[in-house]
Specification:
heterodimer, A: mainly alpha, two-stranded antiparallel ribbon, 13 helices, 2 strands, 74% helix, globular, B: mainly alpha, two-stranded antiparallel sheet, 15 helices, disordered C terminus
């Protein structure tokens, strides 16, 4: 808002895309955080992650009717369903846990294909209409512009979710176990924590995060045939840009991607197709060495 | 015992499939010939995936990126340069190699599951660019009405599906032959050594990242050439040909074929793509479900196909005379940093 005061005429048209970018970025962060967990802790590339998000999205479209009660219900059902799907995935992965990454990636891809097909079969091939809560269906004034109230509230909720996630990983015992499992899985299993239990827990939490993002973000990235692919791609780019496993890095990368997808497209429409690519190249040029070291360490 | 059975099954299936590919144009109708030509092009991409995944030890889900680059280069540039197929294949291979070279700094420092992630992200980004860069690629509608090619200077333009299939078959056979020959040289030995024990190879003074870069660019060139074949085969190209499901199917084909085996990758990829096309024909609507279940079943049934790359090869590759003598693994102390 300070920038607006400095140059209202030049900055003004970009306030709304910039805010949209924050909402979009936080949504991608919550979704990508689940992927970071699976990848960082269990060392599994979960190609079904986009499908877990789609489960949340379809749940929101089916259960939610505009009231607060149904929103809570949709959130509960969506999170539980996606977490259960994540746990199921972990169960399917158990027999090949000693195999290599290829097996696991292929298995999760098969689950993503089958699950996506089941979702389309269950909810119909058309993209379902998603409502926003009736109380938030209006718009509010932001720096002289009308802005959708739902998105503003979404920004607050997603920021709270991100903060909660950070505190959980940093401060709680479960978070410590997760970080320990990243650093030294053998030592953690020596401490009496079964790797299989960690895998189930991590995939379920990853699923829950994706499901929550899917329910809350349904008005922004709605459920549909392409949702799973879109979310998986955005999450992957965010995870790679964020430095593979760092929470803060992931958050910054997600916000950057959000701004690129909204503000960048508004500022440079002709270069829009290449912006994501350019972002990856730019980050690489800046911190290629740091990334290489981090990759070598994992 | 199980390995032996699997090996024999693979050999038998490979013989049947290769023989079928040879006689196909005289047996099947035009439509099937066109589909098979496209399948063969994808088989060649499968070979490039095997080169990276099995031989060099860098599992990839992004070979559709150079494949797409080659296809669009062939359709947009190649048709303006010349209508000779060999030239177009060369242009496409250059485009694929260039894209692979650009992405080198992202891919080469990474190992294992991170390579999968990064290559997948690159592949998806390329598809996104193709879908949005309307002025050149025609957006999601793709490019149609691509002119026919003549295989070589002085030869007639390929007019029938049968002719296009045979052209594809000859190019694929030539390139696969070249890859097989290349892998029998010192280059192949070094790549396999880097996959099996990178630290030891580095310790003996070899620049493993350089070898990996070479393999990545070469695999990009092969996938690019396959892109040119795709354009010839279906005379149409759109971003839908390069989706993330194609990458996963190719990886499955490579795993079925034995991961480190180039010929097996060709046969495996052809089989998997053929099964997909057949499923989408007979089960419209439920094909992804069946395909997904097949993925899971294959992963459970084929454990050796996946881990073979990690085990010592049953028959050691002949050691080139100029290579430094290597000692047995058991008697050499491990060098790890």
């Amino acid at each position: 808002m300070i920038a607006v005061a400095a140059g209202p005429n030049r900055i003004d048209p970009y306030v709304i895309p910039a805010l949209d970018g924050v909402a979009y970025g936080l949504l991608v962060f919550v979704a990508a955080a689940g992927l970071v967990f699976c990848f960082g802790v269990a060392n599994i590339l979960n190609l079904a992650h986009g499908m877990l998000y789609a489960i949340g999205g379809y749940t929101a479209a089916a259960v939610f009717d505009g009231g607060w009660v149904s929103l809570a219900l949709a959130l509960g059902v969506g999170v539980l369903a996606a977490a259960a799907a994540g746990a199921l995935l972990a169960g399917l992965l158990t027999p090949v846990a000693t195999g290599n990454h290829l097996t696991q990636a292929l298995l999760t891809f098969g689950v993503a294909l089958a699950g996506g097909s089941l979702l389309v079969a269950g909810f119909g091939p058309d993209d379902p209409q998603v409502l926003v809560p009736a109380a938030l269906d209006g718009s509010v004034q932001v720096a002289g512009h009308r802005y959708a109230a739902y998105r503003l509230v979404f920004i607050v909720v997603a920021a709270a979710l991100a903060a909660g996630l950070y505190l959980t990983v940093r401060r709680t015992r479960a978070g410590m176990l997760v970080r320990a499992a990243v650093d030294d899985p053998e030592m953690v299993s020596c401490l009496g924590v079964s790797p299989a239990r960690i895998r189930v827990g991590v995939l379920a939490v990853g699923g829950a995060l994706a499901g929550a993002a899917g329910v809350l973000g349904a008005p922004i990235i709605g459920p549909g045939a392409d949702t799973a692919d879109t979310v998986l791609l955005l999450s992957l780019v965010v995870v790679v840009l964020g430095g593979l496993g760092s929470m803060v890095g992931t958050l910054l990368a997600a916000l950057a991607i959000g701004e690129i997808q909204t503000l960048g497209v508004a500022l440079l429409p002709s270069a829009a197709p290449f912006l994501l690519f350019a972002a990856m190249a730019a980050v690489l040029a800046v911190r290629a060495r740091g990334l290489a070291l981090r990759w070598a360490a994992t | 015992m199980r390995d032996e059975v699997l090996r024999r099954t693979r050999a038998a299936v490979a013989t049947v499939v290769l023989a079928g590919l040879l006689v196909a144009p005289w047996v099947v109708d035009d439509y099937t010939s066109a589909i098979l030509a496209r399948t063969l092009a994808l088989g060649l991409v499968g070979v490039s995936v095997a080169l990276l995944t099995g031989v060099a030890g860098m599992p990839t889900l992004g070979q559709t990126a150079p494949y797409a680059a080659g296809a669009y280069a062939s359709a947009v540039l190649g048709s303006q340069v010349s209508d000779v197929g060999v030239v177009q294949v060369a242009v496409a291979a250059l485009a694929g190699a260039a894209l692979a070279a650009v992405t080198l700094p992202l891919v080469v420092p990474a190992r294992g599951v991170i390579v999968l992630m990064i290559t997948l992200a690159i592949g998806e980004l390329v598809v996104t660019v193709l879908g949005r860069w309307r002025s050149v690629t025609g957006g999601t509608d793709g490019l149609a009405g691509i002119a026919g090619v003549r295989p070589f200077w002085g030869l007639p333009v390929l007019a029938t599906d049968q002719a296009r299939y045979l052209y594809t078959l000859v190019v694929v056979a030539t390139l696969v032959g070249a890859v097989l020959l290349l892998l029998r040289t010192r280059a192949g030995v070094l790549l396999r050594a880097g996959r099996d024990d990178e630290m030891r190879l580095r310790a003996s003074g070899h620049r493993v990242p350089l070898y990996l870069s070479g393999a990545h660019v070469a695999a990009g060139a092969i996938a690019g050439a396959a892109g040119s074949l795709l354009v010839v085969a279906q005379q149409y190209v759109s971003p839908a040909d390069f989706g993330f499901d194609t990458s996963a199917l190719l990886l499955l084909g490579v795993v079925i074929g034995g991961t480190a085996s180039v010929g097996g990758a060709l046969v495996g990829a052809v089989l998997v793509i053929a099964v997909r096309d057949w499923l989408f024909g007979v089960l419209p609507g439920h094909a992804p479900l069946v395909l997904g279940v097949l993925f899971v079943a294959t992963v459970y049934l084929l454990p050796t196909g996946v881990t073979r790359a990690r085990r010592p090869r049953p028959v050691p590759a002949p050691r080139p005379p100029d290579a430094a003598p290597t000692r047995d693994r058991d008697t050499t102390p491990e060098l790890r940093v």
